[in-house]
Amino acid sequence: MHEMTLDDLLGAVISWLPLVMVLLSLAAAALIFPLPEHRGRLRATVNLTAAVLKVLLIVALVPPVVADGARPEVSMPFLPGIDLVLRADPLALFFAGLSAVLWLLTTVYAIGYLKDSPHRSRFFGFFSLCVTATVGISFSGNLITFLVFYELLTVATYPLVAHRGTPQALHAARLYLRYTLSGGLAVLIGVVWLTMYAGPADFAEGGAESVTELAAASPGTATLIFVLLVGGLGVKAALFPLHGWLPQAMVAPAPVSALLHAVAVVKAGVFGIVRVVDDVYGIEVTAALGVLTPLLLVASFTILYGSYQALRQTDLKRRLAYSTVSQVSYVTLGITMMEMTATAGGVVHLVHQGIMKITLFFCAGLFAEVLGVHRIEDTRGLGRRMPLTSAAFTVGAFGMIGLPPTAGFISKWQLGEGALASPHPWVLGVLVLSSLLNAAYFLPIVLRLWAPEPVQAEGRDRGRVHEPAPLVVPAMITAGFTLLVGLAASVPFAPLRVAEYIAEGVFR
Amino acid sequence: MTLSQTALGAVVLLPLVASALSLVLPPAARRWVGVTTAVLILLGTTIIVAAVAQGSVQELALSGHAPPLGIAMRADGLGALFLATTAAVGSLTTLYAAALPSSTGVRLDGDVPAAGHPGFWPLWLGCWAGLNAVFISGDLFNTYVGLELVGLTAVGLVALGGRDSLTAALRYLFVAVAGSLLLLLGVGLLLAVTGHLDVLRVAQTTSGLEDSGPVLLAVGLITLGLALKTALVPLHRWLVPAHAGAPGAVSPLLSGLVIKAALFVLLRCWLWILPETGDGQISGAQVLSWTLAAMGTAALMIGGATALRQDRLKPLVACSTVAQVGYWVLLLPIVTDPRAEGAVLQGALGGTVALALCHAVAKAGLFLAVGTFKEIYGTDEISALRGVGRDHPVLVLSMGLAALGLIGLPISWGFLGKWQLATSGVAAGHFWIVAVLVAGTLLSAAYLLRAVGPLLVEPEADDAARRSPHRRLRQVPRAALSAPLLLGLLTVGTGLLGSWMDQVLTVGVPW
Description:
- Chain A: Residues 82-124 form the NADH-Ubiquinone oxidoreductase (complex I) chain 5 N-terminal domain.
- The complex is a heterodimer.
- Chain A has 21 helices and two strands.
- Chain A has a domain at 290-454 and 464-507.
- Chain A is an all-alpha fold.
- The longest helix of chain A is centred in the middle third of the chain and has 32 residues, at 167-198.
- In chain A, strands 1-2 form a two-stranded antiparallel sheet.
- By secondary structure, chain B is mostly helical.
- A two-stranded antiparallel sheet of chain B has the order 1-2.
- Chain B is globular and about 70 Å long.
């Protein structure tokens, strides 16, 4: 009897955790905004405390949700007949875990990166708002809740892209807002329409029942709504031809780029696509409507197009940006192949792409901050001058190419295996071609980094330079993760294991 | 008499008495009358809203005579929500005006009195009495009187802008009087046809009439008058100079509250008084409703496009009001659609009320913030204010929060409004509403970004314009800064109250 009540209490506490996590980040934002500029230490304490607490809470949620099948949930009335629902399911935890861990590291990096620069309270305030939105997105239990946080993310990232305040930054921010607001409106229309016909569709493994009924009764409408939803989400997910904002947004400070590319914005887009395909429509219904293959084709094309564009760039950050366009579409590719191994590969790439890409951006930021290197041709010989950074970059680049034993290898292996078993074996060709392109644009940088220095600039000091710890340590940690999740992919609760568990749910 | 009945009388009588009282007090003491009145109105409004939220319409028969002989004051869900929003916006603007008296007006000789313009408090408190009277009046003649009081005091408030505002004020006077006359004509016609002035009794009688022609004519006249007063395109020319030229503490009252009184009466007439149209025939009411919806759509486009072309903040914000008025008449074709059922009407009304009241809160906040910039720097030219956001993060934050509501992004009251209006439009088969809402949203995002964006931009490092513009005002009192911020937070916070407000709104609906 006594044990029962304790369990009940524990259950009640756990069910509130999703809301607690959203509020935690919101509280951090509310505390940071009014802080005076010079209270750097206090600001860092608030930031890091919230970030660490969040990681701990997510770690605490993993065993009950993944092993015991619990689904902690909070809901509150929002509109007549519609609730805001926050629920922790494995996919939610997967995304929330990624964002929590990378956020902690990005915060450390950003504190070091923005040392002594103006407007730090504003920056970290909006930074925390972005976390709030991302946590909300990951725990959203239905489309309306998702939409609310998705739009919050749009609004909160605008000041970050515009942070530098230069005309170029402002132009990029305006372009970003134009793209994402239009995308958000498309999603809104889709959600309104779907809600009218099928009610507030709760995310459910295998798809929401009411949506299945709608698809059976009027497939035309269901298809149109699907196109609106995925088309809108495709803007943030940078699907071709909706990717135009991403390379422009490169003018933002390095931590923001890391955030846009690896954790928050593009991830929110693909995460939304995964939710719509797997948990709103359900994979069977999506396939029956005939929209899965076109999406697969768009994803394939985006992968190749992004790589091709990356190859043409001479600016390091721009090359990384186009590489993101390409790499993020692996997720869409995986979930549209209609095959369980491929789905697991797509889902796990949510995390793998995140840790690899954030490593690369951390390093690009370091090169730019420490030595003012922006162009790829200037990276020659940096391996000797900034060995730790260059090593981390190399690991990230190998991951992107998909060399063993990195995280990227695991993703590509899964996707390739899935492609062969799926109705679309030609996708393997896309993967091979894309890997070749990846190698073509990453290997030259790696070779340059470790090549001997150019002879000409003799008078200057070409020795090893100091790599600031707050910047280089996060980069080394994520590089370490890139190797670790590749080596230990079959350990219980490793990303791949959880992704496989999620994929099983999709095909249940 | 119950507590809420006392409160019903008090929210009209108190500001009226305070208005008269402030006339005889020295200017410096007037603001204390204003602040005290605001606190008491907040209290009374809370009592009324709490009682209505319990689910019953609150009614007070004046001097104990019930209609049809006497006159009733009546607060239903619709009235309660308008009353509550007015109390919130009114008291925060009162706080601002009391904390920053220089924002209350300019003398005709161009002098800014340190203790505030002596005309502000009597005019504003009188206006507040009129607003509350409109929202809780159960009787059409009282509605007219209230609206007249609002209109005339508002003209006076516009004139506080000094010599430059006199033309705008005069023009506004003509509009207000013409609008009121049309309203009076319509009310007289309704009295002649139905023999009643009490809204509920008029509504009962009109639904039984054989020939709805005269009622339609009356509603048409009233609508035209109210369209003038709300500045519905193409009757909007007066609004921008009047609202943009008014003093800092006045513009939010005009844009946020004054035009809402006319909108309130419009909703009352269309949803309560206009009889239902039969199936299978195109009625005059339908033609009228479609005409108004077309005007609303035009307002959104024209107002938005004009706002995009502005170089100064206050006219930009005023143009945005012209645009947003368009949202509030989009529901009319649904109202006259014989297929529309109670649930759809409820959604359309809920959406419209949310959009209008969100506009009240957000626009007041935006005007206060913009007005504060004008107080500090003596100009509201966007190019001159480039980068000042660095020194005034709170003001820019307030503007951003208000912009969220005006664009209609989640979480905000405006998002709820768009959602409800869009869903009821789709449910009633009026898909065009979604298209209009989308276009309006994109335009409003564009012009608001044009207002907020440049304040955040740093001037270029080597530019000679790096120095900040000259500051006229060294220090803005904290209390004055808190008013726009609280309004901004309210814009967002009310976005979580959707279910509750929808419940309140069902109290006393005619379906």
